[in-house]
Amino acid sequence: MIELEHICKTFGSGEHAVHAVRDVSLSIREGEIFGIIGFSGAGKSTLVRCINLLEAPTTGRVTVNGQELTGMDERALRKARKKIGMIFQSFNLMPSRTVFQNIAYPLHGSGLSRERIEEKVLSLLELVNMSEKRDAYPSQLSGGQKQRVAIARALASDPKVLLCDEATSALDPQTTRSILRLLHTLNERLGLTIVVITHEMAVIKEICGRVAVMENGAVVEQGEVFDIFSNPQQTITREFIHTTSNLSKIYDLIEEGSPVVELRPDELIVQLTYVEKNVSEALISSISRNFGIDVNIIFSSIEIIQNAPLGGLVAIMSGPRDQVEAAVRFLIEKNVQVEVIKDGRMASAVCS
Ligand SMILES: Nc1ncnc2c1ncn2[C@@H]1O[C@H](COP(=O)(O)OP(=O)(O)OP(=O)(O)O)[C@@H](O)[C@H]1O
Q: Can you name the residues that pair with 336 across neighbouring β-strands?
């Protein structure tokens, strides 16, 4: 659906040149929600703007919906762009026009009659659940409502693709979730291909099927969200994942010398990470029962991603050492990653 081949974008030249995007190739499938994550300045916005050629790549080829956009003349490009909607962090609504007029704007000059335009805008308002605000002005709306209007406007010309550039970054967590739910519904109902640019792993986790991680203008890692979360390859990816999990707080507790992590010699602190899609057994209660050991959970961060439990927990396991070790072997056989964070036998040693 979207093919980016060896995209480079350089701003300026000579010693002032900024290589915002460096040789990025991505293939985004029809009907998927694809995420692009990176810290500020990684080149995400520039890359996403290359998809609809708001930014012309310095080199490389962009093909959307079977049409190569790079190399098109202005007129053909304008037409092709109508099938690529875009929404932004700052909503970009026209302040002097009502909600209705904002959504109707892209339809002027489309050849549709006034009645047909009205019908279309009303159905879009319904789709984004904003029918009651049709005569309001943007200044009278909350951030989430403004983004709903921006989404309706982006959908007015029946695009096949929706590009979302930090679309939820200005919103509180609850509103973010409601906008992400709306995008998910649009993806399912309209078969819309959605590209989400964000610096928040929580956004990726919530709605994306696949993700690309950007650093210094390049894509350093990409794949299914579940696989990336369960087995990140790059340091930057791990950093993003840590922002959505509380498990690493165990290291703070150890460093602070918290009494919570003071161990008796028969105790171990372990981190268990679920990395398989088929973990469905009640593993903790079963090791406790079958091996006669105690498992005291300190932190837990288990979520359902792509219908499978992902994440893990940090726990103190206590009991006869041979039984604890047998329980650990049992977990490893069940494809649970087990990392010993602290061993009571080794006083304050931290191993991993
Ligand atoms: N029009 C421009 N002229 C010169 N440099 C630019 C331009 N647009 C972007 N850049 C530079 O390109 C690099 C990538 O910027 P870009 O906005 O794509 O990153 P980003 O990952 O989207 O970051 P943010 O989330 O902060 O927007 C940055 O160093 C930025 O300063």
A: 274
